[in-house]
Amino acid sequence: MEQMLGSFQSDLSSISSEIRTLQEQSVAMNLRLRNRRLVRLQLGQLLEELVVPGAMISTILEAPVTEPEFLEQLQELNGKINSVKEQAFRETVACADVQHVLEKLKIKAVTKIREFILQKIYSFRKPMTNYQIPQNTLLKYRFFYQFLLGNERTVAQELREQYVDTMSKIYLSYFKSYTSRLMKIQYEEVADKDDLMGVEDTAKKGFFSKPQLRCRNTVFTLGNRGSVIGAAELEAPVLVPHAAQRSDTRYPFESLFRSQHYALLDNSCREFLFLSDFFLVTGPSAQELFNSVMGKTLAMFLKHMDTYVSACYDAIAVFLCIHIVLRFRNIMAKRNVPAVERYWDTLLELLWPRFELILELHIQSIQSTDPQRLGYLDTRPHYITRRYAEFSSAIVSINQTFPNEKTNALLGQLQVEVENFVLRVAAEFSSRKEQLIFLINNYDMMLGVLMERAVEESKEVEGFQQLLSARTQEFIEELLSPPFGGMIAFVKEAEALLEKGQLEQLRGEEARVTQLARGFSSTWKSAVEALSQDVMRSFSNFKNGTGIIQGALTQLIQYYHRFHKVLAQPPLRSLPARAELINIHHLMVELKKHKPNF
């Protein structure tokens, strides 16, 4: 038994040493396996990167570049070229075996891509080509340019230069032709240096002078011209000149400007996005490339605008162009395309000074207008003030959309000159009454026109409301003076004595008071009737006339009420004439009958 256990123990110890040996062998085998797998993985990866499959060679050599397989194999080839470059840097010997194959494939791929892109660029040059179609095709194969940029920069540069040269000429030719054709559908008669606000209507009526503008006031009125900056028309399709010529349709300059610049905006946005996408440029590089393509066109636009603006006397057209630029600039900002930002700035630097100059010329023309040279004057609104009212309301209504202090300041200067002009003309009338009728008619007309277009809070509206109110009050006093002047003068004298406490001085006025009281009772009806007719004859605006009559009757009631109060004072209280006074409420009822109704 002991012997058997001893042999069993020795067997166990030998098994234990065998297990240890097997474990050591297993660990060594695992280590070798892991090392072999690692080597196999790295070698497999290296072989995959270096080995050039037959399918790649045949596709690159034979397949058309537009086939999806070509693009797929080109991307593979690009990966292998980059891998070989990386391995060659690590001095991998196997690279030498495939480098010449890859080089030949690269040359073949570059040649085919170059031919394809050049063909597309040349297709832009065919007459009547819609160049957006080849551009969209190129965008589908934008990897081609990326491949050239990484592997053959000189070819990439050549293609870029070819594209820039071609598109630069195409845009210049297109916009030059479009601009010249657009200008043929502008109104034939445009404003010139004789169409200033202060120029007399007779200035252009010489025997050999050209015909008047179809409506000279179009220089000063907005009419429906403001719709060009409205939402519906601002981004409407561009004008087609030959269609307009066929239907003999004509347009003001600002409509042509909108069409020309909307075409520019649309093409610039599309071109900038294409350049950034296809030629893989951003920031200043994208701007520089865009300038290479569109620079000549933009320079041509600026030259055209400079020529037009330097001879333009239509301030509303220039101001509308400024507002079109401001809106187009916003549209491009929303589209996140900064391409023509500098162009907009340069354009505004061209337009603003001209607008200011035309306004200054209007101001000077009003300053230098001599009322004595204007011929026969009547008390109705003057044509120069009507021009101002139409013009000012036009500029104010446009300016409200993009407020500008510079414009407000110039309009303020113009308003001051027009106010001075109205006062100069008024001074030509001999009677104060005629002067006031002229001033009220002009202020009322200007206020009416301004309130149609401008907001009621505008400085111009506020200024003329104050002037109109002051002159109307003065006119009412002037109107009441002939029939009721005696009573008004007495009331003012008596109230002054009452303030000083010197009422005793009124004791000697009994006869005057009696005469005034009886005179009013007997003549007030006929006086009020004559006054009403006089007012309605004097004022061109019926509503304004009725307002003045109402104001005059209200003022008359107030004076008569004050007359009652004076006669109720101790020195005059016992006068028999008090019994002849008309009851205030009765007078108010009677006067209401004379109040004009609409």
**Overall pLDDT level:** 86
Number of helices: 20
- Using only C-alpha atoms, the radius of gyration works out to 46 Å
Number of DSSP-assigned strands: 0
What characteristics describe this protein?
mainly alpha, elongated, single chain, about 75% helix, about 0% strand, about 600 residues
Structure, explained:
This protein has helices at 2-50, 54-62, 68-89, 95-123, 132-140, 142-151, 153-183, 231-234, 241-246, 253-278, 283-310, 315-334, 341-367, 383-399, 405-426, 432-453, 459-500, 510-538, 542-567, 584-592. It is built from 20 helices and no strands. Residues 203-217 have low confidence and may be disordered. By secondary structure, the protein is an all-alpha fold. 73% of the residues lie in helices and 0% in strands. The longest helix is centred in the first third of the chain and has 49 residues, at 2-50. The chain starts with a helix and ends in a 6-residue tail after the last helix.
